[in-house]
Amino acid sequence: MAFKAKSKPPCPNPCKGAYAYSPGIRGGNSDLTKILFVANRADRRILQQSLFNNNYEEALLKSQTGKIINEILDFCKLTFDDIYFTNLLKCLLLNDRAPTKKEYQNCVSQLEIQVNKFKPKGIVAFGGKVYEFMFPNYANQINFENTIWSILEYNRVPTLISNHPCKLGSIISKTKEVHYQVIARFLKKKN
Prior knowledge:
191 residues; alpha/beta; six-stranded mixed β-sheet; two-stranded antiparallel ribbon
């Protein structure tokens, strides 16, 4: 899926200064597996990976996040073609400024639309920001570190809470493999 810069993102509540938008990458086999991966947001590094053709998929695969997602998928005997990968915040923001709470909340409604249309059997939510905005009631009571590996319901869809892929990339191999095993067991139950 191409990641083309647009002057106005195609959503009802575009972020201030947003200069590009992507709904994510929907793999060709994702309608068979019904697996959705949700990360936090893309930043301008994603475009720097692929400045000449603005191809979001190619840029993601070259990024640190993409490399770790590939490791996870390989461990689970899957590929990017088997999943729908999206970010909670779908806009690229000028100067990579931090999104406001309101902008994240606006994007949650876009994620809900994606979930309702895609009808996943399972979601893997990567990172604290994703947890905070997908599960605000839990996040107000339980901090992110205490929910890792928990399975919560998002719009009636079982959702595994995991560290962000970049965080997984920075931990030692043995611990990383435990995370991958948890994700693999979760996804196996969903197929």
